[in-house]
Fold each of these.
Amino acid sequence: MDTFVQQVVNGLQIGFVYALIALGYTMVYGIVRLINFAHGDVFMVGAFIGLYAIERCRLPLFAVFLLAVAGAALLAIVIEKIAYRPLRDSPRIASLITAIGVSLFLEYFTALRQVFGPNYYSFPRPFAVSSREVCGVELTNLQTIIFLTTLGCLALLYYVVHRTRMGRAMRAVSHDHVTAGLMGVNVNLVISFTFGLGAALAGVGGVLYGIAYPQVNTFMGVMPGLKAFTAAVLGGIGSIPGAVLGALIMGQSETLTAAYLSSTYRDGIAFVILIAVLLLRPTGILGVPRTEKV
Amino acid sequence: MKRISALARIAAPFAAAAAAGYLLEATDVVNPYWVQIFQLACITSVSALGLNIIYGFTGLFSLGHAAFYGIGAYAAACLMKIGGGESHLFFLAALAAGSACAALVALLVGLPVLRLTSDYLGIATLGFGIIMKVLFDNADSFIPLLGGARGMTGIARMTTVPWTVVILGIVLVSARNLVRSGYGRALVSIREDEIAAGTAGIDTFRYKLAGFVAGCGLAGLAGGMYAHLYSFLHPSNFDFFKSVDVLVIVVLGGLGNISGTLVASFGWIFLLEGLRVLLPPEYIEFRWVLIPVLLIVTMLLRPQGLFGFREFRFFREEAEP
């Protein structure tokens, strides 16, 4: 029983990181209906910014997060402007292929020796990891930091989406971007902001992931990206609480499979759950079914 | 008589190409490496035509095409290893069996999954692709012959230029005839508007399933040829990126465009290999930097695909007299 609770806590650790990535997918999908395949690579860039900020500049942890957030957000806004905006009125598959192109470009461009380099790099720990027993469960200070940072980000996100003018504009554009535009919402600005906000969360996720699993390389974003996106679909894509819920389920299923079944099946089990859920609820757990109008 | 001459007209170029290919293969005029790439391009065309039927004509968004390619490859290779030796007749039977295996799995997967629509279908098939990759990785724990994560070695090299060209020819002609038939019309009508198609009396689910199964069957066929071309199979040959490869080809060529798929398959495969030769060795890692840039620029300039709706004459609709 104790090991079970311990595994659940470990699952929460990876689940919270997935949640930070999944939020970006779900918000972007909610607003432009695009599977932003490049999002996992923005997460990777966030992790590398964190690596350089810690290793080369020896910045305090808070500044490292700020830098990663700023870099990731800027990158996502530029990507949106160059690659996605010109295709907004084209068939959706065109922007999807472009997103795949951007993703491949980011992976291989940053893998060049002149940029980040093709190897695995060890991510420096900014603090010594120690663990404490809380109610019979080993809880590391690393896990505490991951939980607190993620919860803080979620609270901030909730505030932005539900309590600010920009958040209201985001919800309006995601509901119907043509009408929102007619009502005086600056749709382009809102879309840029959404990309930036999602990427900022991914940047935080990248640094946390780097600290927790201290090996980074330029392809590290692929699997977490796919899983986070799957988590967003599992929870109901377009729904912010859904993305968090999906990510937590994803994290649990993965850790529990690795612990009790076999770690080689770890990558597969989450997708079995996904397909099962989609068959029962085709729009995800918290997704709102849309009826097609004739 | 008219029929025979029409058939001859269709078959002649393929027969010529197959003969030319056979001569090239036998005489060493062309570097055998490039002959192999040519075969790979033919095989990729077959697989991409399958996805074109699924996505281009029927409008079913599939991100798991490589899984069916892999099922065909492993099934055919396995059969050939058990009973085939070097017999060409048995090779054809193994290809057919591999294709049938992929089609059967597609049927079983399609029955539940095809009730989903658009992006949800894409994610479900993506999920299926990743599950299959995990199964291929662990395959040696239930069938040691398949090799699992270490890869499957020692598959007979049976895929020759004439086989690839002839099979590609047959698939091309069948795809063209399928699209022109009532069946194909029904598939296209589902892509255009599923509700309207249903109202017009088309059993949409059955047709979607048929389109999906047929397309995956072609992927399986291509997989079998691939296995016997390189004589080595590894699960990483059938991961998510390979599904994306085929999707890129189909979209680049233009959705629902047979000529486009054909040209894009050859273009894509030869571009990937050509850059290996064109780039100086110290810049070889720029290959995958250039390719996405080309892809993005192409999409920005021609979002409807390189060919759009234009087809070669052979694939074009003939106006009713």
Amino acid sequence: MDTVSNTPPPVQKRNSKLKTRVTGFFVNLYDVSKFVVRFFKEAFVPPYEFKEIIRQCFEVGVRSLTLISLTGFIIGVIFTKQSRPSLTNFGANSWLPSLVSIAVMKALAPLVTAIIASGKVGSSIGAELGSMRVTEQIDAMEVSGTKPFKYLVCTRVIATTFTVPLLATYSALIALLGGYLNVSQNEGTSFSEFMESAFEPINFIDINASLVKAIVFGFTVGMVGCYQGYNSSKGTEGVGKAANNAVVIAMFLVFIEEVLIVQIAGWFR
Amino acid sequence: MEKAKAQINYDNPVISIRNLEKSFGDYHVLRGIDLDLFQGENLVVLGRSGTGKSVLIKLISGLLYPDSGSIDVLGNDVLTLDTRSLQELRIRIGFSFQNSALYDSMTVRKNLEFPLVRNKKGITRKEIDQSVESVLDAVSLSQTINQMPSELSGGQRKRIGIARTLILNPEIMLYDEPTAGLDPITCIEINELINEVQQRYHTSSIIITHDLTCAKMTGDRIAMLLDGQFQRVGNFNEVFATSDERVKPFYDYNFIQ
């Protein structure tokens, strides 16, 4: 007896899978763009949820402060310690403060803060909103005539956009403090000397670029966390996925943005 | 156990649904539903799990959109309303969720205040407190005002969920499985509360359930949803006076005989 298989040949199957993936990617991209546009449409029209924004700023700050303090300090100390032998070879120990400040202020502080915020804050936003979605709390807000998007998403994104630059600045200062302690112990440099040479190579564009970077990173962490949580589904599995995606996607985007902003800042020099 | 006769205005339907269809992928949930809810009436929608009962009230409140058909609520075509008008209409509809959907990061007081302060512009602190106390009194849970949702029992959560909808004085109440997951005594208390709400707040309600005790106690009219359509509509006795093999087991497997 002859049998006719209904299964499509492997190449056709692979092509259709690829087609689904590509379509899925563009559908996702469209959804994300819609989400971002909705944020800008709703965030700047009254009524404003000031109380909730302040509460969220506090939450974001408190959640990450300990880790950022510790990480910032360790980065300062370790970076100084590791750079010393190379600089000693060239007899350029006096450049240590400048080297630390350039590394910390231009790159490490915003980047490390954003990565910590992705892990601590992004995941928590993703999980919180995801759990509110699956337990119908967001639907409950919707049917009671309130605007859940404004209350839940806009407040959190504004909070991360404001707080991450503050945390990044704080992290840079703590890292410099770590660097100073190491330098003063080994080279006997005074605080004023350290700070003078630390800020000497830093100009206005560097500080602005770092601040812009931190603002963009903060916006990204908040937006990705909110998007993942707000659109999560499939019960508890969906909540876990939302939290996980919030971290992974935010980190990925932060690295891409870092490269782009460094490139753009380079054009202004 | 049967409920007292309510004052129903059969000339004034507050919800009119015509030829409503909804599918999820290949699964055709609702297949051309027609339904009227009259002013002052408690209409129970009965059916097995997965037959689209909850989908129906989500369509009415604009949480989902149908494939075709029309939904008229308090003189508004839900499907053509813009966001603001839909938001205004929703204030006139109370929605009690199956799992209560209380905001778990807020106390009971904050849960009740949340819709109030966002919908009633210029409301004073005193008026907010009065409204909160009044609805908590209506559901007999004044003592829970400062508790978190996680500290409440299932029955208490249902009551607070109902109180949160009542705080905006809705004209229509939509109850999604109000007695699901509760013990029989609490079920009866919730059923009595639904009737009290009808009397005290003059609401018209759709009650989604598969609990026949709830249907018998609260329903002025019962609509049986089978295979995506209302197969039998009438009072409790009329609906179950049938030899239809799809309806009979529903009655037989419940404890009412």
